[in-house]
């Protein structure tokens, strides 16, 4: 059995360990000349050699999968899509070569670009606030959210230890009956009192925990499902502390804000696993063909919580349909993203407005479907719906976000939403891209920026479907 070409990764690993080709070849039981051919992708690593390599470098074989390299390449393509790099004419092949031969350097370039973007945004914000006569409202760099998203993506949005903790809670607390009452009693067993407080007394908070008095205050505006989620979240913070600490100590998280945010995200994961236990939820998802609304009613969870849980069904041997998920606001900001399908989301610039998740704002509360095709030919099936958040009474602010969930078109028939849709129809497919800068579809009427692949040509006498669309003079 042959594996994919990994010569660049082997060379990078060897150099990191300061090993010569002769030394590594001796450890692998092959000749130095054969290793040289492997490192230059003129010979492929056999499965046996791959196992030997993993033993020599103490590697998790998943780290040698092409997913990390593809994700780095997608990030770098977006980085070099910035007009800043136009004079340097960096090719796609050069980017792929960098990710293969020097993955650490590729990640460093992305990190450097992130720092550049943060510094530029901070500078712009400082200039704006100074011109307005004050320093209040300085924008943060938002890097912690990016780091936590990368951590979740690296784990495939599946955390076995938290799943085991949730299943143990179900077993020990017998949560199959009176879920809210038993969750509250579980907290009582941990010495925590639960109180439902008037909205005015919560001072804008939905949940407030006093670690000294060991009192958990929940707002009266939380509905039953949301109360259950917050109770489970608090149980996760208290009972899964060791696991949360270990996962949030990942070197990918570079600061205390990132680690604190990771703990919250992981405790939310635990809460979702408690409300939607793995095996019953997977069985229900399969039997109901991933009907998000119906699953939400059955497990008393929101549309967004149900969508997120569906993306976590990655247990080996008991996987659900690989799904991607994205959450956006009406301004186009992506606040949550995960992909188990290979679909890449923009990190540094606006996403394609043709995605169903953006169109859903035109029909609030209605679930929309879309069959979309990327420039590389990959086709995906989407559902999307807006979610309105309410935090109190008549005068309380309301916000709206849109949640999109999707899979590869080949798996779409497993979703009830694909019923009646001709997945083979060319007319049904909506051409979309990652960002305008990386999309080659010049005829798009919604193009906001010129593509990186074509030099901008302006003719004052002719106007196409967009300012950047080519036309015949």
List keywords for this structure.
473 residues; alpha+beta; six-stranded mixed sheet; three-stranded mixed sheet; 42% helix
Explain what you see.
Helix 8 packs across helix 13 (256-275). With 473 residues, the chain is of the alpha+beta class. The protein has helices at 7-16, 21-28, 32-39, 47-57, 66-79, 92-101, 103-131, 143-154, 160-173, 179-189, 224-239, 241-248, 256-275, 278-287, 292-299, 303-310, 356-359; strands at 193-197, 207-210, 215-219, 314-315, 318-319, 324-329, 334-339, 368-373, 379-390, 398-408, 429-431. 33% of the residues are buried.
Concise synopsis of the structure shown:
The protein has helices at 7-16, 21-28, 32-39, 47-57, 66-79, 92-101, 103-131, 143-154, 160-173, 179-189, 224-239, 241-248, 256-275, 278-287, 292-299, 303-310, 356-359; strands spanning 193-197, 207-210, 215-219, 314-315, 318-319, 324-329, 334-339, 368-373, 379-390, 398-408, 429-431. It is of the alpha+beta class.
